[in-house]
Design a protein that fits this description.
alpha/beta, Spore Coat Polysaccharide Biosynthesis Protein SpsA, Chain A, seven-stranded mixed β-sheet, 25 strands, glycosyltransferase activity, Glyco_trans_2-like, Nucleotide-diphossugar_trans
Length: 688
């Protein structure tokens, strides 16, 4: 028997939604990251009563995936809802059907791995995935499926690698089915199974007809365990007991005895936990009685309630002292958020909390927090103090969302939104102090696991996050930073005079480097490239370095000192933000051969100011700068030097880059970034 060819294009996905908009939307966002787009996604709304079907329909209007929403008008149960989607998929010509829980997060290669396993053996009728715990992403919940102890009336998930022949069933949380197998044995038995055991029954029927089960070891899924009803909800015990009775009546040798033993095991667990309602639910299921407790039905919030202000607590330590890149990002974003009545902001740092930012925008005070670099475990102490201040704030103000602008956040029960700017500490650890690398390696993963949404500043960084933390698919939002309007506004004469003073009256244009002086910014190669220029170019265009001295400056200090001694370089240190447009106006070009960038704000600020840019062709820079800069190989001193020569001698090239740069920089607006962040905060708070 020859197996037909399978591809993502002829595979259809079946999702069931029941009062779970957030889960379904997150799952769909994760499906957007699949390596290959499926032929069709069928969302079956199983009679939701919370308005989620309408919200999904509105969201799909801007979604690029091939999705069809089907409304059943009533709750048909898991098997019944799946059958509706399966029939539509079969009618549409699907050759493989992927049953997927709507609270699942898929790895980008999950579907292709399932299809490859189905393709490899024509006798395989169903393929399962390796399912991990979404709350503990490295913990295996289910290795494809599990075993049925029919004499005891219980099923047990496998949690380690097993030959598929030893599995009695595959879980319906992620189950790929072959069309021919379904056409032979039929669909889920929705007459007997409303919830639970329907996937086990289907697998038993497959095996009875000679079909084999398989597990795709490379198909990884992260699943929010028992999110439909909750692990301990009495209604879950009711349906599990009811469905177990139907299953055992078909397949157990002594069905009533097995059903009784299984029920007693469940009752004993609930008895030890003091869960009397669960025990009553099990008894009602055994007696064939209707469930007596009121089934919780989500009720949509009134519009006035849905529009009320969201209270957000912001971790604002990076805004203290002289703000660097993350501090500027935080300031500008907050400036937009405070203009809308839709959010109410408060701030906490290591030293306290307040309804005002740590300092007024534009006012630079002496650097705080330097102690964390000078005492053992300083970052850990800082992190502990932030958590302590957050707890104090929560007692007084009760924030609904905690917003972290700088990679990590202390634990908290409130939903969290976390901003991750790049992963250079993982991809390029040698460019960071060891203490910072150890701190982030210890705290970043737990912070990401707790985060309801993760915001990053480029698609490059999003890709890096998914490479290292694939379980984040569906929770990552790309938010491009904006550019301050001062960079595109005319430069004032006062700023020009202040710059002349800083330059000791030197009237020459210059090559400019603008950022923290540290190895990640490729300082050593930049200095060597400039040092190798002809004396004529160096006399015409000195190299001006602006920025705080960073880590491991000793690596390039000898080069810096000899160039300073020859008068080839001007070291200005940290300059006020107000002077940066004037600084860029005078520059012949910004030289930015950085080795690693999550976004790269200085090149965009330069483009907005009408300053040509030479930038490294790596990480996020090509995504952000497009064709509006001159690129170099940041690992090649010769390439950097050649780029500087071209910019020094080719006036037409400079004019071309200036025009392209202004158009490229015009795409980045803080107002747009703030509105996007507001949308993320409202979504996490359930205020859509």
């Amino acid at each position: 028997m020859t197996s037909p060819s399978f591809s993502a294009q002829n595979a259809h996905i079946i999702l069931i939604n029941w009062n779970s908009l957030a889960d379904t939307r997150r799952c769909l966002r994760a499906l957007r990251e699949l390596s290959d787009t499926p032929g069709r996604i069928w969302i079956v709304d199983n009679g939701s009563t919370d308005g989620s079907a309408d919200a999904i329909a509105a969201w799909l209007a801007s979604c690029t995936l091939p999705i069809t929403l089907i409304r059943t008008g009533e709750n048909l149960g898991f098997g019944g809802g799946c059958n509706v989607g399966i029939r539509h998929a079969l009618d549409a010509g699907a050759t493989a059907l992927w049953i997927l829980n709507n609270d699942a997060i898929v790895h980008k290669d999950a579907l292709n791995a399932l299809l490859a396993e189905l393709q490899s053996n024509a006798q395989v009728g169903a393929v399962g995935s390796v399912i991990y715990d979404l709350d503990h992403p490295q913990k295996v919940l289910v290795w494809g499926g599990g075993h049925v102890l029919s004499w005891l009336g219980l099923a047990h998930h496998a949690k380690r690698t097993l030959p598929a022949a030893q599995l009695d069933y595959l879980t319906g949380a992620s189950l790929l089915l072959r069309r021919e197998a379904l056409e032979q044995i039929g669909l889920f038995d929705d007459d007997q199974f409303f919830m639970y055991w329907e996937d086990t029954d289907l697998c038993y029927r497959l095996r009875a007809q000679g079909w084999q089960l398989a597990v795709a070891a490379d198909s990884h899924i992260w699943h929010q365990h028992s999110s439909s009803l909750g692990h301990d909800h009495p209604l879950k015990d009711y349906y599990v007991t009811n469905s177990a009775g139907h299953f055992l009546s078909r397949y157990a040798r002594f069905p009533r005895l097995s059903w009784t033993l299984g029920s007693l095991v469940r009752i004993s667990k609930r008895l030890r936990a003091g869960q009397r309602n669960n025990i009553r639910a099990i008894w009602e299921a055994r007696k064939g009685l209707a469930y007596s407790e009121q089934v919780p039905t989500p009720v949509p919030l009134p519009q006035t309630e849905r529009r009320r202000t969201v209270r957000v607590a912001i971790e604002a330590t990076t805004m203290q002292g002289r703000p660097a890149g993350i501090g500027h990002f935080s300031e500008e974003l907050i400036n937009v958020l405070i203009q809308t009545p839709a959010v109410k902001l408060t701030y906490f740092t290591t030293t306290g909390y307040s309804d005002q930012p740590p300092h007024p925008v534009g006012l630079h005070i002496s650097q705080r927090g330097a102690w964390k670099k000078k005492i053992p475990l300083g970052r850990e102490v800082q992190f502990y103090l932030q958590g302590w201040q957050l707890e104090r704030l929560k007692k007084r103000w009760r924030p609904e969302i905690i917003l972290g602008m700088n990679y990590v956040l202390p634990k908290g029960r409130s939903p969290q939104v976390l901003v991750v700017h790049d992963l250079s500490h993982m991809d390029m650890p040698e460019a960071h102090p060891p203490g910072r690398v150890l701190f982030l390696n210890r705290h970043l993963r737990p912070a990401l696991e707790r985060a309801n949404a993760v915001v990053t500043i480029s698609h490059f960084t999003k890709g890096e996050l998914l490479k290292h933390f694939p379980e984040l698919a569906g929770r990552i939002h790309v938010l491009y930073p904006g550019i301050s309007e001062r960079f595109s506004a005319p430069v004032g004469e006062q700023a020009r005079r202040a710059l002349r003073v800083a330059l000791d009256g030197d009237p020459r244009p210059y090559f400019l480097f603008l950022s923290t002086l540290e190895p990640r910014k490729n300082m050593e190669r930049l200095l060597l490239a400039y040092e190798g220029l002809t004396d004529r170019i160096k006399r015409q265009y000195p190299l001006v370095l602006v920025g705080q001295m960073g880590w491991q400056e000793s690596r390039f200090a000898p080069i810096l000192e000899r160039m300073q001694a020859r008068g080839e370089i001007v070291l200005l240190g940290y300059l006020r933000d107000e002077l940066l447009p004037a600084l860029l106006e005078r520059a012949v070009a910004l030289i930015y051969p950085s080795l690693y960038e999550g976004f790269g704000l200085p090149p965009v600020e330069a483009m907005a100011s009408g300053c040509p840019v030479l930038a490294g062709n790596s990480t996020a820079i090509p995504e952000v700068c497009g064709d509006a800069v001159l690129y170099c190989d940041p690992l090649s001193i010769e390439s950097i030097r050649d780029g500087m020569i071209r910019l020094a001698e080719d006036q037409a090239l400079r004019h071309q880059l200036i025009e392209k740069g202004k158009a490229q920089a015009a795409q980045y607006h803080w107002q747009r970034a703030g509105e996007q962040m507001l949308g993320i905060l409202r979504e996490v708070a359930g205020r859509e």
